[in-house]
Amino acid sequence: MSNLTPLAALYQSVVQEELGLVARVDDDGDVLFRHPDLGTMFFSLSESDPEFMRLVYPSFVDANELGVTRLQLLEVVNAVNHGCKAVKLSVQAASGPTAGRVSASIESFVAAPDKLPAPELLRAIVARCVSAIRHSAGQVLKDALELSQGAAKPAK
User: How many Cβ atoms sit within 10 Å of the Cβ of residue 137?
Assistant: First the structure.
């Protein structure tokens, strides 16, 4: 059974034509691509809900990599969620030595119920969606690193 449904084919062509990136459809029917500045991203798709768009930038950093505690990371993520448009950041549950990895996503309804999105609409928004994720991820890194560097400075 092919995973290249009309919905997956639409997103695959939009990524390839608008972003100029190679995109592939995985076994779940999601459209994966590698952004040169960010790494792997994907559109999580559901044939039963074709009007719902979810672009995911998974597990891009964790608290340990940033030199902050889980609580500090949660506070940074909350502040970035509050201050940045469209993107939803989340921190996975802590497991083992990691304090939880941060993922970013953009979720939106992009068509009427049970309809495929218009190709023109997806073409018009895909670059902005990637840009919003890049901005939010960059803000998490910046804010967390400032916090960890501030905590590492000796008091005067």
Answer: 23
Which among 37, 28, 9, 44 is positioned nearest to 141, based on CA atoms? Answer: 37
What's the whole-model pTM score?
0.90
**What's the chain's Rg over C-alpha atoms?**
17
- Residue ranges of domains in the chain, CATH in brackets: 6-150 (3.30.1460.10)
**Residues 34-62, mean pLDDT to the nearest whole number:** 96
Which residues sit opposite 31 in a β-bridge?
25, 43
Sequence length of the chain is: 156
End-to-end CA gap in the chain:
66
Q: What percent of the chain shows pLDDT beyond 70?
A: 93
DSSP one-letter string for 40-79: EEEE---TTSTTEEEEEEEEEEEHHHHT--HHHHHHHHHH
Indicate if the pLDDT at residue 1 is higher than 50. Answer: no
**Tell me, what amino acid is at 79?**
A
119-152 vs 70-83: helix crossing angle, rounded to 10: 140
